Amino acid sequence: MTTQSTHTPAHTLFKVLPGAEGAAVTNVAIWFNDQPLTVPGGRSVAAALLAAGVSRFRATPVSGAPRAPFCMMGACFDCLVEIDGVPSRQACMVEVKAGMRIRSQEGARDLPPVSFADAPMENAHGR
């Protein structure tokens, strides 16, 4: 499988239009695949990662093909990532917050434990 570089490129496809924010953009520090990233705050996880140059969010369960956000409105599920230990979160539907730990979702997600009483729901898959 291909690993995603988390460096910030000189240019990105998704940029905030001048004057669209009103005030200056506040950056927040997050972790993506165990690498520190500084991303623009006040937007979805997907928009923040795209603005930082991340182009691969997950791999498909069958072929391992790379996927990234497509619809940006919660309909397509191509932006699924693990956020703070919770798998299968739609990155386009979650606002980015400082300190978030985000991981690419590789293939099918794990099945939940047999008994939900055995594991806290915040980290049901032991990650």
Identify the notable features of this structure and list them briefly.
127 residues, mainly beta, 24% strand, Ubiquitin-like (UB roll)
Summarize the structure.
With 127 residues, the protein is mainly beta. The protein has one helix spanning 45-51, and strands at residues 27-32, 35-40, 58-59, 66-67, 80-83, 86-90, 101-106. It has 1 helix and 7 strands.
Walkthrough of the structure:
The chain is mainly beta and 127 residues long. It has a domain at 27-108: Ubiquitin-like (UB roll). Helix content is 6%, strand content 24%. Strands 1, 2, 3, 4, 5, 6 and 7 form a 7-stranded mixed beta sheet that branches. Strand 5 and strand 6 form a beta hairpin.
